[in-house]
Fold this sequence. Notes:
Chain A is mainly α. Chain A contains eight helices and six strands; from the N terminus they run αααββββαββαααα. In chain A, the strands form three sheets. A two-stranded antiparallel ribbon of chain A has the order 1-2. Chain A has a two-stranded antiparallel ribbon with strand order 3-4. A two-stranded antiparallel ribbon of chain A has the order 5-6.
Amino acid sequence: MRVTQSMLSNNMLLNLNNSFGKMSKLQNQINSGSKITRPSDDPVIAVKGMGYRRDLGQVEQYTRNMNEVNNWIDTTDESLNQVGEQMKRVRELVIQAANDTNTPDERAKIKKEIDQIRQHIQDVGNTKIADRYIFSGTNTSKPLFVEATPPNADGNKIINADYELYDGTGVPSASSDKLNAPKGDVEIEVYDGIQMKVNTPGAELFGNIDALMDKVSNLLDPERVSGPATSEEISEALGGFTTDSKSDDITNIHNKILEAQAEVGARQNRVELMENRLSLREINVTKQMSNNEDVDYAKAITEMVTSESIHQAALSVGAKIIQQTLVDFIR
Amino acid sequence: MRSTFMGLEASKRGLFTQQTALYTTGHNISNANTLGYSRQRVNMQATQGFPQAGLNQPNYPGHLGTGVEAGSIQRIRDEFVDRQFRQETNKLGYWESRSNAISQMEDIMDEPSQYGLNAALEQFWKGLQDVSTNPENAASRKVAISRADHLAESFRYMDKQLKTIQGNLGNEINVATDRINSLLKQIAAINKQVQEVEPNGHVPNDLYDARDVLIDELNNYIPVSIKRVASGGNASAVAEGSLTVVFKPYGTDKEIELVNGRDFASIEVNGTVADSSGSKQINGNDLSNVFSSIQISGLGTTESITYDQLEPGKGKMLSLIDSYGYDSASGPKGYYVETLADLNKLAAEFAKAFNDMHKQGYDLSGGQNGIDFFTTDSGPITAGNIKVNDEILKDPSKLAASGAANEEGNGKWALELANLQSKSQANLDGATFNSFYQGMIGKLGTDGEEAYRLNMTSEKLLVTLSGNRASASSVSLDEEMTNMITFQQAYNANARMITVVDETLDKIINGMGRVGL
């Protein structure tokens, strides 16, 4: 076959072009850290990559949701814990007050402390996370306790009229919207299709506590309408004498608080399990995504170096071939 | 009896012929880098010997040579390689243009990345999840709504960009049509010149070269075949004649002449819709004007070539038509047309499913507002006009995030909306929104891969073929240098011969008859 200069130079140009193309692709891979820059580089990787991105996005979102869950549950736990502590103090005070050795004056002093505790528990019932009342069910913009109009002289708030305080007798009825609403569950999705209840609807619990506190405070009031309470009457408020779990005495209420705390604690355990699961999933998806589309640097750089040396060889050989023609030798 | 000066004449012929060869060598060297140039060769032949046959021929022993003449100057060309080259060049024309069109689409889709439609969808679902965890928070609602706005904008942007490129492709069809017409005209013009000079015995090699370049380029656009028509008169044996350029509709035996001698046809690439001036020529201004036929007129009857009569995978023109869009029995088809249709389908189904779901939720004021989340200014929702309802943009509380009346802290409906992402849609062949779009990208990727690979293959094949062609036709400087020395030495030798004859004549003329002087 006849070979001419123009064939040589065309071939050389073509080969240089090819090796530039190869190097440019490798350079792209090394710079971006990704095997592909457009779908046609490898359609399978591209489509799988989109799927993994979606999975990873979901896991990220669930992790974010999980922070919210923790916020709710930790705050609820902390609040209920405080209420429990306060109830212990109430029990002590009532035991102390039940002694008939107390003068009405001393009982009035104890009542003052009880009143303070009542107000504190009301405040706890109005606990907020970023402007949301956590014990108000799904009606998170309405507090459980509101200022009475006109305000009570003793500073006590009254239960929000929207909630029609559950009076402790009978079962709360779902037929009334007002009772139904504050019981609503706030749920947050923490995994594909798994929604976790994060709130503890407090209208009933805090309503019962407030009714009890009102009763105790009334018993200790020296100016009670039906006359000063006897020690029996006071100690009855302590409870534990009957097995009637519905009666609103201190023991029963305390048990209810403990129940609520136990439920929150159980949820905390579940949250921890879910968090582990999420972080495992994140690691897995990230790994899969990386296997799918991340460049193997050792391989890419080795190939790059190989291409570079081939390119240089092509250049120097080309330079030698192209500059020489017969013209250089005939004078 | 030979003439006295016959030796001088014979050598003079040698001088002239070698000079011709030397000048042709010079011409070859000058054109070493000319596109389409084929090296030329002087066909030397011995002149008629002495004596010639005749009644009164001198009786003479043997047949005395009388020197050399340049019989013809011929270009060196391998017609078979030319044919192969042209068959391959229309494949390259097709795949080059197609990979170009797909590459532009890939640039717009921009996947996989953090910026494409996939990411916009993803962000929107995440925004809704955030609303579900903070339903009473105006900020989280605003974020979700502005992400919806961004999503709608992504749809509109892609639609607009794809249409812009589709328009460019239409315009390219117009430009290619002009180019084809210009090529036909130039080929006919060269034919005319060839027809004029060949009967006089001339061989216009450089015109042949120029004509071959034009035919190569024409084949890049549409597959054509050529036939030779020899010139009459005193045409040389190596003359190539005028070329008839023929287009054969695919699947038929018909032959449509595009160029015949000095006459040429003109083509028009027509769409389905006539513009205000009545022309149907595709120019990319009206995207609904998809390809319907190529009209070939000017040589006899007007012929109409439909899409089915264009051979698949051949020629840039067909590739442009495939990308831009063409009319078929089942409505407009074509790469951009179909991708835009898919995008519209996705946008419409997405908006519909989302709106239907959204209407069942309760907004922050506690009731069902029943308004559409995604709307348009007019007409049905498409990728080009989808937008977020202004009412919702103005008042984020209208986003129906709650699953029950009067529950501001209830984010269940936002969650339902967010979970639409994993619901399969009957109207999208059972795919989810994300997977439908992933399918689009997957198709784009495989089509792109195919186009790039075939482009590469035909490029490589073409390189081999142009190597073969160059092997026959291109100028080798070394060869020309060798020839130069050969011809120069031959010239010198002829000159020396003249000196020898001169000396012999000198002996006779000046040295004879002077005995004793």
